[in-house]
Amino acid sequence: MIIIYYFLASILYFFGAIFLLLLSFKKKYHRSIPARFFLFNNPKFKDADVHFHACSFGEVQALKPLMQKFDSKGLSVVTNTGFEAASKICSNTRFLPFEIFLPFWLKKSKILVIFEAELWLMLVFMAKLKGSRVILINARISDRSYKSYLKFGFFYRYLFKFIDKIYAQSELDKERLKTLGAGEIEVVGNIKAAFLPSVSRVYEKPKARVIVLASTHAGEEEMILDNLNLKENDLLIIAPRHPERFAEVEKLASEYAKKHDFSFAKFSQTHKFEAKVNLLDALGELVNVYAISDIVVLGGSFVPNIGGHNPIECAQFNPVIISGEFIFNQKALFGLVENIYIAKASKIGDIIDSDAKKSKIAVQASADAIIEDIRSTL
Description:
Blueprint: H1 2-23, H2 32-38, E1 50-53, H3 57-67, E2 73-77, H4 80-89, E3 93-95, H5 102-105, E4 111-115, H6 121-129, E5 133-139, H7 143-151, H8 153-159, E6 165-168, H9 171-179, E7 185-187, H10 191-194, E8 209-216, H11 220-225, E9 234-240, H12 246-259, E10 264-266, H13 267-270, E11 277-279, H14 286-290, E12 295-298, H15 312-315, E13 320-323, H16 331-334, E14 337-338, E15 340-342, H17 348-353, E16 360-361, H18 368-377
Parallel strand pairs: 1-2, 1-4, 2-3, 4-5, 5-6, 6-7, 8-9, 8-12, 9-11, 10-11, 12-13, 13-15
Antiparallel strand pairs: 14-16
């Protein structure tokens, strides 16, 4: 099967190369596509005992506490934001090339650690062929994804033959993985609850009630702002999920502020929160903002097809948390937090104006088994 897969991937690459080259001129992809699909400025790893692989910024941040426990390591990623975050943690960082390049690009490590759903057949096959142990950590399968996985069950049954052990987030994930042919599975909870992100910079808590619109996506800012009725003692911070939307959200936020005669400021210019409406146009600052928040409206959940975002990161600071109804990708994490308000955007104002309960993490997780697995391999 691996030969057929490699042949089909090669054909796909041959027909898609020109399109990818054109797409690489977009700012979002100007670094990742040349590196992944043309190996531009993307050499092999330096020798490393542990090869970590994650997709993007959020996954890299979640992996950071685990990676810091090991000196000899390499980290591969998929996206630009993931690469920027990873480079700050590990100098031996690379983009993961498209699969047809992996047979001659991938270097042997003692263990390959894959985060969540980054299931690339050629990656796990070549790692095993070169003699590496392969583990999948923080494994989860959402309700929506499970249907797609089942359609290609034959493929995943083959892929899981090359993964030595899986550390799943929940018993439900374990059951689903078994159905897909996964072998040894241990439930350890969500690593994001085991390693909570820490504050990197302490900001003085404003005397106002701080309301944060966190990790918002296209269409959500307008929807939420239309249902907000800021009081005199309220201070609003808007934190878009993706940096390429900063300019777009700046326009929305400044118009909203102007309409209501509120002051507006960009964090990148002021580096503080004193305006009535503030745009958080910087990466890596959200956890610092959570630390001074009173109410967090968690984005990615008021529009379909996103599936929600991690509530654990803000719940550690015990704000009131409001989320939309579309949380299919984060159900396991939401189950670990008490007092999250799930509502339509039209109800946000009512919840904010009510005597809402503060959130708290009800269930912690442990990464001890994962750490021991990696150490025992070295």
